[in-house]
Sequence to fold (235 residues):
Amino acid sequence: MSENTPIITFKDADILNGEATVIYSLDMEIYPSDFVYIVGKVGTGKTSIIRTMIAENKLKKGTGLVCDYDLLKIKSKDIPYLRRKMGVVFQDFQLLMDRTVEENLRFVLKATGWKNEDDMDNRIKEVLVAVGMELKAHKMPFQLSGGEQQRVAIARSLLNDPAVIIADEPTGNLDAETADGILRLLTKINIEKGTAIVMVTHNRQIFETYPGRVFECKNERCLEEGASTELEAAV
Fold:
């Protein structure tokens, strides 16, 4: 994908939460290598935007193009293929607690069409090395700290070499020092791999410490802030 071609495009898009519109007329373009924050108070539509990106919420008005899929026209059978082009990281990790780290990652690879065991072994090792968890492959999730579980979740998001990682409050359950480590890791992935990052957060310190493009949700709109514009408190 060209650096000049957006991975994600919304134009005049209304964002729904259930049947209720929470964001009107969203305009947003996200390009390869972008690091984008979506910020705002609780209930302002941040998570609804990323649920729309992954086709969990329907788009009924406007334009929505994500990884070459038209969100207005996408069929249910195509949604898994859209999601294979993205990595998704959740606040609560969503690991399978009855399987080891390696088995968690292998499950995703098999579910997304990988067949060759050697290829899967190599890819699991690659992503665990990338997040500094190569020595924990045999561990069960409950044997890991919160920060370690989130690193595994990020490794999982990297398995299919996504164009973009969508992260919904990925540091929300972590202490400040651990959260900083996760942000450093996401920044490294963004810089070294050119993977776009779209991150929902209410933590002002994060986007002040790790600069990126910032979209603020407020008053049923989501608008990009200028680099020198002082945001209103998003906490």
